[in-house]
Amino acid sequence: MVGHVFAYPVAVVWAMASIPLAIHLFIDEIDLLPDEEAIGQLVVRRVVWPAGAAFVLVHLASLLWAFAADPALGFARFLKALAGTAAIGALLGIASWSWLMLR
């Protein structure tokens, strides 16, 4: 349950972090779309993959805790995996949004 609860904010971080890259990689497709709603849908379809991967990764990391022989060690491993996934997403987000705003 704890892994599921923490998976949502980590997935949101990864979704927000991947928006600039999605815009950059698919700008030619975006330019052909007729309205803002279609653009938003395209970007959402592109950012759901990294967000979904982070969501699944946190769930898998919670298995380190759930099936650990030593619950304290399993919890520590879960926290390290959770913090690492969140930190990498946050750093990539800072870098990608900074790159987008400073271009």
TrEMBL record:
The keyword Membrane applies. The lineage of its organism: Bacteria, Pseudomonadati, Myxococcota, Polyangia, Polyangiales. This is Uncharacterized protein. The chain crosses the membrane at residues 6-27, 47-69, 81-102. It comes from Aetherobacter rufus. Keywords: Membrane, Transmembrane, Transmembrane helix.
